[in-house]
């Protein structure tokens, strides 16, 4: 089979790239070794984070780092044995998180985030997936006045600099919004602009169906089988040999499967995360996507139940699951909300694909004229799928991307 483009990886990023290319008239084959959206994109917290203009930096406060080093927290956990391997990534991540650099990165990152909800909105309409979306922002609940006031000040900065809307909630207002939440909280903050997704996997599948309705084809195969031809690329798949002029690598945390063989180095790391679903106890309801801000875990009222998601685990991507954060979080979550029984046989785990400078890689490969990259979306892959697909497709077609893509170029790691 011949196509214009092969997209490797059918997570939310690969599906979004494929659909944006197909919408622009390209013939596209989308390839994955599993079903679409079954890896990292399957189990996230479901937020389209329009407020997320400042990427999550590596802590700079030595006191906080010392507390993290005890390795007993909910929001972060690490595997000691993985440290020698991941230390170079962590060192660069720390370097890029220093205040002046972090501020510059945020300025480059914010334009992508600005298009997150609007670009999803277009695909949600075309995919007729509106029933999966809740347009009601999300909430932070605070145990201390100090954290609440810090975050209020941060929200005011985002309102001033980026036009992000928020609502400050008193203890009473939080209790009204969430009548079954415990009284451990002194107040809350509602980010008004984000949307949330009742089942992230179903949204990826809705975008996949849109892609197929536009003539695109999904096939199963191993991206490691990719090779160059005199005119482009070829790959053996379960549907036979596919040849195409161009290839897009959208393999999320596995992007090195292809990039390393082709001579590129990205110093990527992963932040692994877990989820588990719970039934609410009889007669109770969680109304909002909500973070227990000082503890660092999330509760999301999804289709499959209340999804508890965890923060960052620094570990080897392929190491066995170690869901200690999930169990710690569950113990605390049960004290703030009447969670019922676990609904999954075992915790789900995904690996957020992270670059050390907190921005994704989007654009052409420096030394191959028909090889394109779209990976490294860390905490915001769901948020940024459609806009990533749009600007990559525009660049591939020789158009001016809706957001200038120079800040996301692969050259920053491969000069
Ligand atoms: C707990 C948690 C909560 C999160 N919450 C949010 C949130 O609320 N909002 C948000 O925006 N983001 C969130 N994220 C981040 C988001 O889920 C990721 O950024 C996103 O899913 C990355 O998508 P991707 O398509 O790059 O990667 P993936 O979804 O991992 O897709 C990569 C694909 O490549 C395929 N693949 C790998 N190797 C091969 C191979 N050799 N051959 C063929 N195919 C291969 C895989 O099967 C997979 O389908 C969260 C992540 C976690 C873990």
Automatic annotation (TrEMBL):
Gene3D superfamilies for this protein: D-Amino Acid Oxidase, subunit A, domain 2, FAD/NAD(P)-binding domain
Alphabetized Pfam families for the sequence: DAO
Phylogenetic placement of the source organism: Bacteria, Pseudomonadati, Pseudomonadota, Alphaproteobacteria, Hyphomicrobiales
InterPro entries per the UniProt record, alphabetical: FAD-dep_OxRdtase, FAD/NAD-bd_sf
Stated name of the protein: FAD-binding oxidoreductase
Residues in FAD dependent oxidoreductase domain copies: 4-394
The organism of origin for this protein: Agrobacterium cavarae
Keywords from the UniProt entry: Oxidoreductase
């Amino acid at each position: 089979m011949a196509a214009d483009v092969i997209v490797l990886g059918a997570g939310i990023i690969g599906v979004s790239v494929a659909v944006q290319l197909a919408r622009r008239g390209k013939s596209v084959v989308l390839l994955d070794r599993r079903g679409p959206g079954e890896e990292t994109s399957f189990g996230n917290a479901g937020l389209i984070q329009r407020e997320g203009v400042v990427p999550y930096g590596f802590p700079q406060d030595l006191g906080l780092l010392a507390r993290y080093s005890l390795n007993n927290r909910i929001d972060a956990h690490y595997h000691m044995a993985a440290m020698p391997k991941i230390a170079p990534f962590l060192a660069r991540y720390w370097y890029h998180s220093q205040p002046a650099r972090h501020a510059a990165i945020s300025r480059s990152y914010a334009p992508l985030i600005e298009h997150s909800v609007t670009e999803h909105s277009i695909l949600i309409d075309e995919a007729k997936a509106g029933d999966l979306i809740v347009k009601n922002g999300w909430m932070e609940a605070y145990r201390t006045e100090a954290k609440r006031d810090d975050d209020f000040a941060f929200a005011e900065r985002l309102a001033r600099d980026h036009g992000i809307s928020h609502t400050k909630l008193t203890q009473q207002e939080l209790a009204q919004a969430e009548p079954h939440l415990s009284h451990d909280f002194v107040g809350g903050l509602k980010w008004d602009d984000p949307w949330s997704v009742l089942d992230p996997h179903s949204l990826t599948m809705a975008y996949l169906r849109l892609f197929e309705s536009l003539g695109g084809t999904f096939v199963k195969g191993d991206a490691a089988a990719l090779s160059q031809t005199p005119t482009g690329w070829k790959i053996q798949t379960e549907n036979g040999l596919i040849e195409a002029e161009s290839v897009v690598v959208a393999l999320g945390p596995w992007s090195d499967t292809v990039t390393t063989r082709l001579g590129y180095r990205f110093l990527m790391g992963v932040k692994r995360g877990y989820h588990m679903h719970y039934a609410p106890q009889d007669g109770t309801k969680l109304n909002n996507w909500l973070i227990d801000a000082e503890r660092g875990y999330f509760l999301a009222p999804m289709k499959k139940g209340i999804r508890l998601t965890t923060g960052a685990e620094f570990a080897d991507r392929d190491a066995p699951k170690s869901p200690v954060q999930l169990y710690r979080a569950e113990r605390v979550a049960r004290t703030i909300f009447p969670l019922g029984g676990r609904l999954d046989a075992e915790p789900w785990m995904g690996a957020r694909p992270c670059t050390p400078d907190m921005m994704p890689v989007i654009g052409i490969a420096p030394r191959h004229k028909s090889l394109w990259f779209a990976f490294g979306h860390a905490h915001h892959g769901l948020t940024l799928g459609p806009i990533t697909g749009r600007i990559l497709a525009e660049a591939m077609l020789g158009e001016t991307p809706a957001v200038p893509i120079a800040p996301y170029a692969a050259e920053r790691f491969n000069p």
